[in-house]
Specification:
Helix content is 7%, strand content 40%. A hairpin with a 2-residue loop joins strand 3 and strand 4. The two termini are 25 Å apart.
């Protein structure tokens, strides 16, 4: 596993290293000790998977409020995804900044979205599957979200108008400039 730091603290792009032979390949998707070597404490409680039938499908931004914040480790199992990570950490140098990444099943890369950040995806190929490991149980009463196309964020999406989006994701509130969302230090320290 090769860990690449990004411009958002705690957000990592991870390359997997398949060992290829005549049978196919073998690779490790998760190694607690490799994460620990990079200063990442990641304790998996759920593994989730989504099938996205139509290119242009949009999911997110979702996050959980303290004390139920979660880290997510995302990987394309089939197809490609455009993934945007948004920093919501109060006091962070990169607060309300975002970065985009392409998760590609053929490239075998992964993305670590840490506590205090949130992510959203757009599907770049039909029938794409995304798997993600999370470090906290799902608590519906702690869930919040931000609309994917909030004008304050100025995110450049491959599909400015989603082909498919849930009512919930389309209905997340826009950021209130006078009171933007902020996840405090209790969550990610």
């Amino acid at each position: 596993m090769i860990f690449h730091k990004t411009k958002l603290d705690g957000v990592w792009l991870i390359e997997l290293e398949p060992k290829i032979d005549a049978r196919g390949f073998y690779m490790r998707n998760f190694a607690k000790e490799e994460f620990a070597k990079n200063g990442i404490d990641f304790n998996i409680v759920h593994v989730n998977r989504s099938l996205n039938k139509i290119k242009g499908t949009t999911r997110g931004f979702h996050y959980q409020q303290p004390p139920k914040c979660e880290d997510k480790l995302l990987q394309a199992l089939k197809g490609k995804f455009y993934d945007v990570v948004l920093d919501l950490r109060k006091g962070s140098k990169t607060y309300l900044r975002w970065l985009s990444f392409e998760l590609d099943a053929e490239k075998k890369n992964m993305l670590l979205c840490p506590k205090g950040c949130t992510n959203a995806i757009q599907v770049l190929e039909d029938n794409s599957e995304l798997q993600y490991f999370v470090t906290e149980y799902y608590w519906p009463e702690r869930e919040k979200g931000i609309r994917f196309n909030d004008p304050l964020l100025k995110i450049k999406w491959p599909f400015p108008t989603p082909v498919v989006i849930s009512e919930k994701d389309a209905g997340w509130p826009l950021i209130d400039k006078n009171s933007p969302p902020a996840i405090d230090l209790r969550c990610y320290n």
